[in-house]
Amino acid sequence: xxxxxxxxxxxxxxxxxxxxxxxxxxxxxxxxxxxxxxxxxxxxxxxxxxxxxxxxxxxxxxxxxxxxxxxxxxxxxxxxxxxxxxxxxxxxxxxxxxxxxxxxxxxxxxxxxxxxxxxxxxxxxxxxxxxxxxxxxxxxxxxxxxxxxxxxxxxxxxxxxxxxxxxxxxxxxxxxxxxxxxxxxxxxxxxxxxxxxxxxxxxxxxxxxxxxxxxxxxxxxxxxxxxxxxxxxxxxxxxxxxxxxxxxxxxxxxxxxxxxxxxxxxxxxxxxxxxxxxxxxxxxxxxxxxxxxxxxxxxxxxxxxxxxxxxxxxxxxxxxxxxxxxxxxxxxxxxxxxxxxxxxxxxxxxxxxxxxxxxxxxxxxxxxxxxxxxxxxxxxxxxxxxxxxxxxxxxxxxxxxxxxxxxxxxxxxxxxxxxxxxxxxxxxxxxxxxxxxxxxxxxxxxxxxxxxxxxxxxxxxxxxxxxxxxxxxxxxxxxxxxxxxxxxxxxxxxxxxxxxxxxxxxxxxxxxxxxxxxxxxxxxxxxxxxxxxxxxxxxxxxxxxxxxxxxxxxxx
Amino acid sequence: xxxxxxxxxxxxxxxxxxxxxxxxxxxxxxxxxxxxxxxxxxxxxxxxxxxxxxxxxxxxxxxxxxxxxxxxxxxxxxxxxxxxxxxxxxxxxxxxxxxxxxxxxxxxxxxxxxxxxxxxxxxxxxxxxxxxxxxxxxxxxxxxxxxxxxxxxxxxxxxxxxxxxxxxxxxxxxxxxxxxxxxxxxxxxxxxxxxxxxxxxxxxxxxxxxxxxxxxxxxxxxxxxxxxxxxxxxxxxxxxxxxxxxxxxxxxxxxxxxxxxx
Lengths: 556, 262
Hints:
The structure holds two protein chains of two kinds.
Chain A: H1 3-8, H2 17-29, H3 31-39, E1 42-43, H4 51-72, E2 79-81, E3 93-95, H5 96-106, H6 111-138, H7 147-169, H8 174-188, H9 194-202, H10 211-241, E4 259-260, H11 261-286, H12 292-295, H13 314-322, E5 326-327, E6 330-331, E7 333-336, E8 339-342, H14 343-371, H15 387-406, H16 409-415, H17 420-459, E9 461-468, E10 474-479, H18 483-490, H19 510-523, H20 532-538
Antiparallel strand pairs in A: 1-4, 2-3, 5-6, 7-8, 9-10
Chain B: H1 2-6, H2 13-36, H3 47-60, H4 62-65, H5 82-91, H6 113-126, H7 144-154, H8 156-159, E1 166-167, E2 173-174, H9 182-191, H10 206-222, H11 235-257
Antiparallel strand pairs in B: 1-2
């Protein structure tokens, strides 16, 4: 019932008070039209589709709890003497920022709980963003038309890390100050301009007296505003593109099979918000996070053992820990025209993160170039059905995880009773060979799973029932699959390598040859889905059935 | 003065000078080391303690530390390590050592209090060294805030700001300090066991040590105001917790929420 039609139609008068009220609103803002449009939007149902929602809800919780914290937090670096109720810090000289953080923890009613809600929600926010991105990557949801939304998601990940880091530094305790010192060192390692940037950021030599209030402005104003903007863009594109779906009977690139948003899905989503809120509240109620009272006020001289950043910055810290100072006689520090170039800080701090984010942002275009696949994809890939992509993803994740683990190298050493040096040596080796091993193993596992699927599609499920035939032969009875289950096993694309194509002048360019080589690397090892003919032939037979012709095709 | 200048070419002048120099440096060294000795009150040792201690030492320690505690290839000389070192090493079970390695592990003590006391008496009789601290230094009634500052500046880089312990190079480590008695904490500072440096009385005064013990005992008694402390290990355990428990529970809920339809 849109506003325009009601204006022309004879005046409709609702029977009840509530009805008249809603009609009043509807005639002015057209709520029912919006509701009809959105309420009918169909979303497919799968647990792995809900991590984006978790991220969104964590963000809402962050906004709410963060607002509470700003009521009591004072981002000043002016010196004061602690006069609150935590006796182990009584009368200790500290900044007002740290003192007010302690007051939030010990003297504001519910303050410690809200601090812990905020911090746990922050960790969960970045974690759910990361898991959401992994889901999108491994299912191929970044393909056309969603490449740009993938980039927006990447920007959101960086913004989430920025929000986390600026917040981590605010309490001005020893741990956060140590973290800032590392950032300061990394900035100063940038050739020529590094020291200038550092002095600009800290308003003079580290730590100065302004950094906390500056980070505070970024943390509560700029970064959350950008995150909010990006979330709006992200969700808008989700509505425009519609949601992807896993392959299944009746699902194709032109439809979306699922439930409409209203009322069931909206109720579920609303309920899920409170579930996420509840999980965070339980964690905040029962588990300490960032016990700033343990760390004491920041002072540039002490550094505590076990100083680590929050998990999402961990991989950078780990890379710094893995970088050797000298390799036999080779030094990584040079003085060029009076400027110190410290590669053993610059390389680990910027290069791995640079590689990870560059590949992350450009991957949709890289894959599109290799595969020359310009079609729209709304049906997802099962990870096993894109073995090379899955292997690339796992290799990248392994690389990240090696650096991530390195950030906890000291705790690995103490808790598993091994030598810190050995942990570092192993992780250094894994830094190089880990991704290679992960790539090979993942690809083989994916191909093996595909072969298993093919086997099951062709011959049915093993029942475990052994039957002895009259002439003495033993066979295991295979039960045929129902059509719905079989569809999942055979309903996927298995692209073959695309040889080099001549351009409009009939010339095969060198670039095109490189692409063809990559295409072969990408699709060479493949297990084709069982075709209807094979299925027909496969019933009751045990011979291998080769799929495809001319290609190097694997079969069981 | 004249007599001295006349005799300056005497054949024995050089020897006299050398003697004077040696006496001076030796005397200064003796004064300096006594100043630096983390000396608290001395526990009373009787002659029989020393004798019993010697027997225990010969039976249990001399294999590595040598007869008369003069040291062998397998263990250092214990002359001058003081009663505090014995009380710490034997009292926490680190000595006798379980096996050679980067560091001796804490384990149930092998000797009872009397035997430990006797061993301490024997080793203390071999040469002056840090003594077992007096009770008034262990009363945990010092200034916790100042102890906290001393701890963060001197101890936290190895033991962690919350005294949860930390890693050192090549398999060595700084242990967690919860459940360590005040006496053993004091003795560790005074004698520098394993890979720990010595914090003598001019580094950290006995009152400072008392403050540190007060601080450690107070944070231990306070527990964790924010709930389970996850080992007080900082962001690593927090990150592990959010990924495994936090996300784990949420994934369970997502599976539950979507289980009825697809």
